[in-house]
Amino acid sequence: MNFLKLTLALILFCACATTSHKGGPKAFPACAMLQAVLNEVFHPVDDDLHLSRACVEERASIADKIWVDARIFDQDGKQLLPKECEFDGYQIRFGKAGEPQNPGDGVLIVSISAHGNSQSTFVAQTENQDWQHRPPNVYAPSHCGSVSGKITLGAEGIEVSIIPAPVSDLE
């Protein structure tokens, strides 16, 4: 039954991505996906697979909220623009406009790309708050690093796993 509800919610999300929705993560799948990703990208002990919460808070936090610019793309590369959501000390914004305006110098970018009905990939990294004004795919290097992974929508809910970065032969 949960799988049926999750599948129906995902279908409604994809069909209605530009309409207004209110509520927290349970009311809107985009927020639930982002919450699952954000719960996974930070680790209590700093390691090479996860982002350092202290580093991200230093770069992208104002008044105890981490500002997140989220970009969600469907299988055809079309950006979906759900309404913003807020939870667990994060202020989530969707779309290029980035409303409400971020009062700080930095932001955590989370980009999610769909690769099928139940599979997506993501990348999370900190960036300067004015990153949207640069050409596409041009980012400022971040001392906080980046994390990538995959999202699986299944009968048990949303599963997020971190994908280790490839090791270069030059290292």
Please, could you describe this protein's structure?
- The structure is a single chain.
- Residues 1-28 have low confidence and may be disordered.
- Strand 4 and strand 5 (90-94) form a beta hairpin.
- The longest helix has 14 residues, at 2-15.
- Strands 1, 2, 3, 4, 5, 6, 7, 8 and 9 form a nine-stranded mixed β-sheet that branches.
- The chain has helices spanning 2-15, 29-41, 53-60; strands spanning 61-62, 65-73, 79-80, 85-87, 90-94, 106-114, 119-128, 146-154, 157-163.
- The protein has 171 residues and is an alpha+beta fold.
- It is globular, with a radius of gyration of 16 Å.
Features:
171 residues; alpha+beta; nine-stranded mixed sheet; 3 helices; 33% strand; globular
What's the number of extended β-strand segments?
9
Average predicted confidence as pLDDT? 75
Helix content: 10-25%
Q: Tell me the number of helical segments per DSSP (H or I, 4 or more residues long).
A: 3
Question: End-to-end distance, in Å?
Answer: 49 Å
Estimate what percentage of residues fall within beta strands.
Answer: 25-35%
Assembly state (oligomeric): single chain
Order of helices and strands: HHHEEEEEEEEE
Name the poorly predicted regions: 1-28
Q: Largest sheet, described in full?
A: 9 strands, mixed
Please state the overall shape, judged from the principal axes of the Cα atoms.
Answer: globular
Rg over alpha carbons: 16 Å
Structural class: alpha+beta
